[in-house]
Design a protein that fits this description.
Layout: H1 2-13, H2 29-41, H3 58-72, H4 77-88, H5 103-126
Helix pairs in contact: 2-3
């Protein structure tokens, strides 16, 4: 009796399953391969460095459905990526295109490395050991 009440309360407490996390499949293996590759190459906008394929976020689920719909509508890979980038910006790319606004994304780490090496060299050259 107590177990039944506990199960009933647990069922009422849990949100209903909408099936939104159900994987999307194509009957054509080539289309499935395209879909799998695309969602692996596109970045989730709300997760820390996760692809759409890896992300559990609801937005990523919506984006996976959009990619699925666009493949079914016979969009090319370039058209799909361009469509998502026009909606969400270049952040959807793991490798954003080289443009003025993305130069810092591409060359920022190198710039920081050069600055760090310069600081280390300056600190080492300025270091004078004390006589004992």
């Amino acid at each position: 009796m107590v177990r039944g009440v506990a199960l009933l309360l647990l069922a009422l407490w849990l949100p209903p399953s909408s099936g939104a996390d159900a994987p999307l499949y194509f009957e054509d293996p080539a289309l499935q391969a395209r879909y799998t590759r695309l969602i692996g190459e596109l970045r989730c906008l709300v997760c820390q460095n996760q692809s759409l394929a890896d992300s559990p976020a609801p937005l990523a689920d919506d984006m996976r459905h959009e990619v699925y719909r666009l493949i079914q509508a016979a969009y090319s890979d370039q058209q799909i990526v361009a469509h998502l980038a026009s909606s969400f910006g270049d952040f959807v790319h793991y490798r954003p295109p080289l443009r003025g606004v993305t130069l810092l994304l591409w060359f920022g780490p190198l710039l920081l490395f050069i600055i760090a090496v310069g600081i280390i060299i300056h600190a080492v050259r300025g270091y004078v050991p004390e006589d004992d």
